[in-house]
Amino acid sequence: MNQVAQSDFFRQAAEAEGGMPISAGARVAHVRQAVEVGRAFFVDLTRVPEDKRPEVVAGINELVKRASVGTTQEGRVIVAE
Amino acid sequence: MSNPSSFRTVSLIDGRTPERSLIEAQVYRDYPYVELENIELQWADARERAATTGNSGGLAPMEHAHWDWRNKTGSVEAEFHMPVAVECAGFAQGLMAVWRSPRLSRLGDGSVVYVDYVESAPWNLKGLTTGARFLGVGTVLLAEAVRLSLEMGLSGAIGLHSLPQAEGLYTRCGMSRVGPDPDYFDLAYFEFTGENAICWLKSIGEKP
Prior knowledge:
Distance between the termini of chain B: 27 Å
Radius of gyration of chain A: 21 Å
Number of helices of chain B: 6
Number of helices of chain A: 3
Largest sheet of chain B: 10 strands, mixed
Shape of chain A: elongated
Order of helices and strands of chain B: EEHHHEEEEEHEHEEH
Structural class of chain B: alpha+beta
Oligomer: heterodimer
Structural class of chain A: mainly alpha
Shape of chain B: globular
Radius of gyration of chain B: 16 Å
Strand content of chain B: 25-35%
Helix content of chain B: 25-40%
Number of strands of chain A: 0
Mean pLDDT of chain B: 88
Strand content of chain A: under 5%
Low-confidence stretches of chain B: none
Mean pLDDT of chain A: 80
Helix content of chain A: 40-55%
Largest sheet of chain A: none
Largest interface: A-B, 36 and 58 residues
């Protein structure tokens, strides 16, 4: 494959982007909105060792699940790292 | 980390030249985190100016909102996140943050490089200014994520949560749309299998 062909392939892909957004990953506004509607809350885990955090989150999830028994929606904790 | 760990020369399309020529750009890994907040401020300013003139650039209000680099700085500093930036004409044209630790694949048995954040500079969006300044930022960043995955022995597999307006890009590249993620703000989760990622990389003229 020569250089011209390679740049042509890239050009096609780049042109196809067409100046549209490429955004991935939740923004601050997503977190804020989730907190406002009661779908999320903040728990500061910075002082919990990294390897223990999944265990803590699982524990919180279990509490939410138990508390949501009998409701129409299954409770979940949204984790924003 | 105060200096980028590596950089690679790539191309972007200069959207303001009539012949839409290719222009040299650089992709930096471990982009200095001290620069990140400044970039976000510059971009927020550009978005705000565009919003006051009525140019939304096709962005939903949520997509105007910024990522909180101030909260992420600790994570970048502790080297959980790797910031990756595309620079061209002296400015950051796009940013990406990837988790250095692999995450479990949702499509297969292996792991993926998880892309936590991707954004293009506002002046690269059609409609936000008179025309997109540079095209190809998404392609370049996605290719870098696939390369990272290959280097980490993950076969090129990557995953990310797309904002609604960007789903077209990830679908067109051949990523699988797993669906809205109730554990992550209902954003659609996309995953590139290693096989599809390599196939896509070749389709844009890159050698895996």
